[in-house]
Amino acid sequence: MDMLLSGIGMLMHFDVLLALLIGSIGGVIIGAIPGVGPAVAIAILLPATFALPPLVGLVMLLGIYGSSMFGGALPAILINTPGTAVNALTTYDGHPMTQRGEALRALGLAYGASFVSGILSILTLILLSPVLAKIAPMFGSKEIFLAALLGLVLVIIAHRGQTLAAGMLAGLGVFLGTVGLEPLKYTQRFTFGQEWLASGFDLIVIVLGLFALSQAFLLLSEPESAPETPPIKGSMGRAMLRIFKYKRLAVSGSGFGVLMGMIPGVGEFTAQFLSYTYAQKTSKTPEDFGKGSPEGLVASESANNAVPAAAMIPLLALGIPGEALTAMMLSVFYVHNVIPGPQLFQGQIDFVYALYAAMIILNVIVVLFMLVSSNLLLRIIRIPTRFLGVMILTLSFVGVYSLRNSVVDCAIAAAFGWFGLILKRQNLPAVPIVLGLVLGGIMETKFRPAMNRVSVFGDFFERPIAAILGFAILCLIVGHFASLYREQRNRQPNPDHDMHDSFQR
Amino acid sequence: MSKPDGQQVPGADIPPRPGQRIGTRFRNFVRTRNFQDMFQRNARPGELVFAAGFFGFSVLLLILIPWQTQWVPLSKLFTQPAFWPGIAITVMTLFSAGHLFCVLCANRLPGLAAELAAWARALEFVLWFIVYVWLVPIIGYLIATIAFTCALSFRMGYRGVRWMGLAAVFGLGVVVLFKGLLGVNIPAGDIYELLPAGALRSFLMTNF
């Protein structure tokens, strides 16, 4: 309890609270603009936060991360275009409700579900933290290596229907992490004699290219669109309170979000689909799902907003990011010499509590903001997409160039931006590249010490956590092939050749 | 076969494949919207080019391993510099071979030329960005940014006074926020050297 109070005390400074306010409200606005999203915003702001104190910088980015999904629900419900990729499922039921004239009800339920799940997930994590503080020190080199490998396996197989593409892109990420001077024998790897490759590829340069520049190039090269939306009328507060009619679904969605968020490489999509499927299976009106079911909307929104808090667990406890956004945050930790991992939970648990308390406060700020701002946000989302492209390109420059004032970095980011554009157009995910880059580096670093006391293969799994992780990896791979076999046997016709486009958003 | 609302289930007219068990095709249709429904897709236009290119790149890297990494004598395999790039490239090669195979087997949608043209079209904006990067150390962050936002907005069709004003204000806002207020690390442009030494020059070099 003392540590919790100490953590809250760390937040009670003007600069931290201001950063939280800017991050939270900025995150909602960014999330509401289709085509920007938290990844773009965090990538651009990342270098700017390096100059700030660790907690201020992290809280600002955390604010964007945690609040963007609130904002993303707005265009998903009103104009059938998700503000962020994870709001895609919200369109299934949110937009049909708008078409029925229930826009206020849909928005209220979405915000209410997001708020309830956000708070529930953080409270769960605060309760779990003492347990994590005990478990985290049990993770040695072998366990962290296996946890990173588990994350990599999960990020590949979680891209259902695109497993092979996700695998090759994750491999590319791991490869990019190996380019340059290696730290053990001091030899050059894949530098082709070029000096500018000796220091390797910077994570932030690649992230900015793949997320921010690619989005700018995509918006600039595609036809213009500026959505028109009617204003929202009525009491948003009353609409939000209707979430209590769907308590069971909000709680189950939060549970799925927390569970899936804690597992590296899984994230919002899986949590949403599990929550949605559960809601549909247990609903009295399953046929309404996809046609404007409030239950479907609550299931989707409650699951996605529970993930950010849970995704901080592998990041803080083990130093293993579970997705692109937490991978970016990892670089902020490193820049400020705060090394996430078991020692953070042991030595700086108050810092961890401060982050959790910041997430509670940001949820409150966002809900208060949403009570009065939906119509203001409607005006903001009308920015023409090509002008938005100009804005993102201009802002991306700050992110890349301020790192090292390097024209080469900008050229590399532009190249990855073009590559990212192709990935988006092909609807292929960029996240496996980023996670491959980060997790590959962790795996290489941890594998060498892990192998020091290994004489036969079985020695690697002699400790219980290593054995559990090894077994989980084996089960996942076997399970994946088993499910592929089942799918092949029960193969259904592809009804309308409809292609999902989550990665294009 | 029909859905509960009476509509015909799409694909119901497709005859079963040889050996397919009767009744299995629609087993999950009403009950859930499963992953398979959500993520099933055809090969997009250009996917074959991408898959083949990625596979070719992976094979090229695989061939280059002996030349681009060193083998250190008397060291264990897992401490060799080539170990991790080798694993990564092998993963890339195997998965990209599988991906290429799947794309070759898939129903490829038409529109390859248009897709390749879209990829090429985006290169124009890569060039815009590189020119902007090149200009900043020469003419300074403020002038380069306002010139960039206005010129690119003009190029994108925002040509009225209102749009030009908005673009200029946006450019100015970005510079003031990031360089002036947040103090991000962007060096002063060479153009400021032309100003006489004094407070104004220092102010411009520090904030713009």
Any idea what the radius of gyration of chain A is? 22 Å
H/E element sequence of chain A: HHHHHHHHEEHHHHHHHHHHHH
Helix vs. strand class of chain A: mainly alpha
**How big is the Rg of chain B?**
29 Å
How many strands, which pairing sense, and closed or not: the largest β-sheet of chain B? none
Helix content of chain A: over 70%
The structural domain count of chain A equals 1
Strand content of chain B: under 5%
Strand and helix order of chain B: HHHHHHH
Number of helices of chain B: 7
Count of spatially separate domains of chain B = 3
Largest sheet of chain A: 2 strands, antiparallel
> In total, how many beta strands of chain B?
0
> Looking at the chains present, what oligomeric state does this protein adopt?
heterodimer
Would you count the extended β strands of chain A for me? Answer: 2
- Low-confidence regions of chain A: 493-502
Based on helices, strands and strand pairing, what is the structural class of chain B?
mainly alpha
Q: Name the shape of chain A in a single word.
A: globular
Total helices of chain A: the number is 20
Indicate the topology.
The complex is a heterodimer of chains A (505) and B (208).
Chain A: H1 2-11, H2 14-32, H3 37-49, H4 54-78, H5 88-99, H6 103-135, H7 141-157, H8 163-178, E1 180-181, E2 188-189, H9 203-221, H10 236-241, H11 247-262, H12 268-282, H13 294-318, H14 324-335, H15 342-347, H16 349-380, H17 385-404, H18 407-425, H19 431-451, H20 464-489
Antiparallel strand pairs in A: 1-2
Helix pairs in contact in A: 1-16, 2-4, 2-16, 3-4, 3-9, 3-14, 3-17, 4-5, 4-6, 4-13, 4-14, 4-16, 5-6, 5-13, 6-11, 6-13, 6-16, 7-8, 7-19, 7-20, 8-19, 9-17, 9-18, 11-12, 11-13, 12-13, 17-18
Chain B: H1 35-39, H2 47-68, H3 83-105, H4 112-139, H5 141-155, H6 161-181, H7 199-207
